[in-house]
Amino acid sequence: MAQTFEIAVFEGDGIGPEIMGPTVKILRQMSDASDRYDLQFVDAPAGAAHYAATGQAFPDASMETARSADAILLSAMGLPDVRYPDGTEISPQIDLRKALVLFAGVRPVTVKAGQPTPLSMPEGKEIDFVLIRESTEGLFFSQGRGDVTENEARETLLITRDISEKLFQFAFHLARGRKRTGRGPGKVTCVDKANVFRAFAFFRDIFDAEAAENPDIKADHAYVDATALWMVQRPWDFDVMVTENMFGDILSDLGAGLMGGLGLAPSADIGLDHAVFQPCHGSAPDIVGQGIANPFAMILSAAMMLDWLGIRHSNAALVADGTRLREAVEGIVADGQVLTRDLGGSASTTTAADAVFDMLFVT
């Protein structure tokens, strides 16, 4: 009997609707072809364009849709010329992270054999690691509320035991799952700056306590500056990395660079009861309507959603389809025949998305 899942869909701003449309088309076809699950999509208006039109950036009804959904699929959000009166950006994705306590920002980095990358890859090496960014605290905690005077500015770094314990439990669980499926050796690296900041020494102590509870998973530490170096020199050595919010924000963009750009960078923000799946890139208003936006990060984010739903609800068909969808995109990118402009090709948004659709349902 098929399990039914409600997906809240935030189309986003700028190129958001252009990449969400073909992604939902693929998901609908996968759902229609399965007798094990049924996906129902519910639109949730929000974002900068919605604010410009209505004066509301995130209607209460859309938040309620997100809260009641089984998963949230969110496209690129925000527009540089549409802001709140105080000048801050309109970012419903950050509102969701805080409201739903989505503490684990999951940023996979994958470079398969044959895939273009700025690195010079040794023969036989591939990159397959996951960066987990704490998404509710850290240096983002005082966002928009920092103390600024004529002569100095201060921001508050917050790290709590409660969120850190949940974050590290998630990291070790993920590493164990990756090891079970042959995608990693079962290792978690805590990335911090414990040699300088007491807050990060606190962070590391909590990590070590969790590591002691998971003796089957290897645990180690790395300072964030050294990690940035090693991500360029030997990224294939990493499995699961876990770090503070700001460090994770920076390192995840470096990870996207290893893959060839943000157009290949999916993400998830996951809590105990809710999860949001969205591409890492922005709304790119400079290319809206030109049909050249890269849909791959959005589609890969949808693959992460299927995998998460399948694991959470013990639905093997969802997990299998999440893997099929991810591998379809990876295969197309590695083949190099259908690449969008940001990846050095000339394929349109439609052509790129259709290539994924055809690989899944035609070939």
UniProtKB/TrEMBL annotation:
Residues of the Isopropylmalate dehydrogenase-like domain: 6-356
Organism (species): Parasulfitobacter algicola
Protein name per Swiss-Prot or TrEMBL: Isocitrate/isopropylmalate dehydrogenase family protein
Lineage: Bacteria, Pseudomonadati, Pseudomonadota, Alphaproteobacteria, Rhodobacterales
Cofactor: Mn(2+); Mg(2+)
Keyword Oxidoreductase among UniProt keywords: yes
One Pfam family hit: Iso_dh
InterPro entries tied to this protein: ICDH/IPMDH (IPR050501), IsoCit/isopropylmalate_DH_CS (IPR019818), IsoPropMal-DH-like_dom (IPR024084)
Keyword Repeat: no
Record keywords, A-Z: Manganese, Metal-binding, NAD, Oxidoreductase
